[in-house]
Amino acid sequence: MIFPLSDDDRHLLKPAWVTIGLLLANIALFLYQAGHAAFTEGWSIVPREITTGVDLVGTVALGDGNGPDLVLTAGPKPVFLTLLSGMFLHGSLMHLGGNMLYLWIFGDNVEHRFGPGKFLLFYLLSGLVGSLAHIWLAPDSVIPMLGASGAISGVLGAYVVLFPWNQVNTLFFFRVVSLPALFVIGIWAGMKVFAGWGSLAGNVEGAGVAYAAHIGGFLAGALMGGIGRWLMKEEPDTVMLRHYERNPRTRRLW
After folding, report:
1. 3-state percent breakdown (helix, strand, coil) of the chain, nearest 5
2. Is 112 among the residues known to form the active site?
3. Where are the domains of the chain?
4. Which residue among the candidates 44, 126, 131, 149 is catalytic per the annotation?
5. Which of 90, 134, 214, 243 is catalytic?
6. Domain 2-246 in this protein, CATH class
């Protein structure tokens, strides 16, 4: 069992305001969801709505005919706006807590590496790619998809490309140890691929978790992280740069 607790940013230079803002936005919307169930149904991402451009309202039968019918409510106009709203909604407190923990641990260093504006765009693009990956595998699904998992996966993908050797304080088999991000995030990514094998094989309709969104977001984040590393030749003055200067052995992969 690997459960990250924090990363090595003891000498953080300044607050990561975009990361903090995203955390607060997700928490605020979750609190709003608690008293507005119809909002959650209407503003979540429904693949069939995206592929057809039609907002489904009312009782909708599941594709296999074996499960209970769903009751969908009216969403935004155009319905494609759910691709944005859906990544700020969550299905449970545990769902929210897990996503926000990963964002809190890994988001600040990625934000400081990209800069606030670029990081926000990166975050939204990662979430969008993750959602589209799920829709591509289940275009006719009427099961709502919600959560920041695609965007958070993008943050992890960029982090492992930019800071592979940064130490992550992790609960590892009931002991707190420091492990390289390459190992911690690599294990996480491997678990997602393994758990989502059924989804990748086409059995997305019955999947409880949109694993394709995790994988798609992660790959998008890793790609954008690699492009950013290539384009930004000079390392900005961040906690990671100072860590490299203190300990030259903890270098990047290139």
Report:
1. 60, 10, 30
2. no
3. 2-246
4. 149
5. 214
6. mainly alpha
